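Researcher: Next entry in the queue.
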Amino acid sequence: MDRKIKLIWDFRGPGAAKTAEHYEKHLAEFIIIEELKFDITGFQHMTDMHSIAYLVVAEFEMKEVREILKPQRGEVYLEN
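Model: Structure for this entry, 80 residues:
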């Protein structure tokens, strides 16, 4: 079974929350266009001035997606 990798984009500043929410919509569109294995995206508000958007990909898809979308960081995705 492929590990799931969570690719993360950080947004900072007073508009971070709205920007992360908007960016997540583009990530969802990307999943459909590229026919990725998993359909997992989201956003989180870390603080008033820091929010993230994320996309979960299969490990074999990670390099290609990373080159196209240029996330700031990534981590192994563990489901709750």
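Model: The mean pLDDT is 96.
Researcher: Noted, moving on.
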